[in-house]
Amino acid sequence: MKNPFGGNYIEDFEKTLSARALGVLAVLLGVLLAPIQSFIWNKENSPTWILKSRPVVEAYEDVWEGALSGGNLESYYVFGRAFFLVYLLLLSAVFLMYRTSSLMRSIWTQATLLGLAMGLIGDVGAYWGGTGDFNEFQGMSFMLETLGFVVVLVGTTGFGISLIKRMAGRTGIGWLATLVSPGAIVMGVATAYFPHGPMLMVGLVWTSVSFSNAKITTEGATPNLVSTVRKNRHEAGPV
Question: pTM here?
Answer without folding.
Answer: 0.83
